[in-house]
């Protein structure tokens, strides 16, 4: 029996109390808050499960087994851990005394990325015209940041955008814990390692340096969290364009500020104005996504970064924005992502690269609209 199969069986035993949730295709996340309290997310809503683990020791054994599978440690000296299950599901573990209610395990279930942007259109996450625009932006190698809160669908959107990359490109994926699954045949996956007894610590920054020596056509970073943001930004402005990554932020401008702040967390002393100029030069598009209170997920804005103004403030222009239209009788949020009438600065590049045939009936997205055809100002987003 192979190592993966062995841990598949042992973890099936240790996670037996939540097996029904793990096997339910409609459950996206399982949250174990100590051995007696379990919640799960289904259709975007969090509910409490009538399930429990036999005792705290049983749950601790489950956490230890997960750690062993990924060659990591969790315990008094290592209070938390990011890991994955043999099926690819993402796991976060935090243990006492940092966790007062006992061992907490959060499992983001693995979903095969068989969907693409068309699937997100079908789910009303974005519109067909926004999908066409994003596909062309990826083909034009625009550096794109996907911004949103926890559970908003950033990784799903990143997977969908990556499906637009041509098969002939060499793509390097860098993650803390492997989660992305690209369809292109020439894809390399690099995963950070926390280190420990007998194992070398390998950070995202280490892997980023490695990736630049591996002749990448694209670099995809699952999520930017720390000082590796500076490496990513500098690679973007030095010729490695077409990068994709995600960041935790609530607006496109906040996403840029977040990247700026993370860049200054590196071991290189960087003045604020220099960090801002580099971020403004590097990122070209920010795709903002949010999870609404009814459980739905929508792209709320696609904005282009146009540098900074005379006061050194970021300049963003909304190309698409979500227009809310209230709620249905069932409580579902109504509205859609609409074109603002603004055209991207890279419109000419579409034609220079011979991609105009890809535009089809969406040619208007790259030509200025008449003022009368512009949508009204976006109202406050529903919550």
TrEMBL record:
> PANTHER family in the record, alphabetically?
TWITCHING MOTILITY PROTEIN PILT, TYPE II_IV SECRETION SYSTEM ATPASE
Q: What is this protein called?
A: Conjugal transfer protein
All copies of domain Bacterial type II secretion system protein E, residue ranges: 16-291
Under the heading CDD domains, the entry gives: VirB11-like_ATPase
Pfam families assigned to the protein according to its UniProt record, in alphabetical order: T2SSE (PF00437)
One annotated GO molecular function is:
ATP hydrolysis activity
Q: Which family does it belong to?
A: Belongs to the GSP E family.
Write down the species: Lignipirellula cremea
């Amino acid at each position: 029996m192979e190592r993966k199969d062995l841990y598949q069986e042992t973890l099936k035993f240790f996670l037996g109390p939540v097996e029904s949730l793990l096997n339910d295709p409609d459950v996206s996340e399982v949250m174990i808050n100590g051995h007696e309290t379990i919640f799960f997310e289904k259709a975007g809503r969090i509910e409490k499960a009538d399930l429990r683990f036999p005792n705290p020791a049983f749950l601790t054994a489950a956490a230890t087994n997960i750690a062993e599978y990924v060659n990591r440690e969790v315990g008094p000296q290592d209070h938390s851990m990011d890991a994955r299950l043999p099926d690819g599901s993402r796991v976060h573990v935090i243990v006492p005394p940092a966790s007062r209610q006992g061992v907490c395990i959060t499992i983001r279930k693995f979903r095969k990325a068989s969907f693409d942007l068309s699937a997100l259109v079908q789910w009303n996450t974005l519109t067909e015209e926004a999908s066409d625009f994003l596909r062309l932006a990826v083909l034009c190698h625009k550096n794109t940041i996907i911004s949103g809160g926890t559970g908003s669908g950033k990784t799903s959107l990143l997977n969908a955008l990556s499906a637009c990359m041509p098969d002939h490109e060499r793509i390097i994926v860098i993650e803390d814990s492997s989660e992305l699954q690209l369809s292109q045949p020439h894809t390399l996956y690099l995963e950070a390692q926390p280190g420990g007894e007998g194992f070398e610590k390998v950070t995202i920054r280490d892997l980023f340096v490695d990736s630049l020596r591996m002749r990448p056509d694209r670099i995809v970073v699952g999520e930017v969290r720390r000082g590796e943001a500076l490496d990513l930004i500098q690679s973007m402005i030095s010729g490695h364009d077409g990068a994709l990554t995600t960041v935790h932020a609530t607006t496109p401008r906040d996403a840029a500020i977040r990247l700026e702040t993370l860049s200054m967390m590196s071991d290189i002393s960087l003045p604020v104005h220099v960090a801002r100029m580099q971020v403004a030069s590097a990122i070209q598009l920010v795709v903002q996504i949010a999870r609404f209170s009814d459980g739905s997920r929508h792209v709320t804005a696609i904005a282009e970064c146009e540098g900074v103004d005379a006061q050194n403030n970021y300049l963003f222009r909304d190309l698409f924005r979500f227009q809310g239209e209230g709620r249905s009788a069932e409580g579902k949020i109504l509205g859609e992502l609409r074109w603002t009438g603004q055209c991207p600065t890279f419109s000419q590049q579409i034609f220079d690269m011979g991609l105009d045939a890809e535009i089809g009936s969406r040619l208007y997205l790259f030509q200025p609209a008449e003022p009368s055809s512009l949508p009204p100002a976006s109202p406050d987003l529903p919550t």
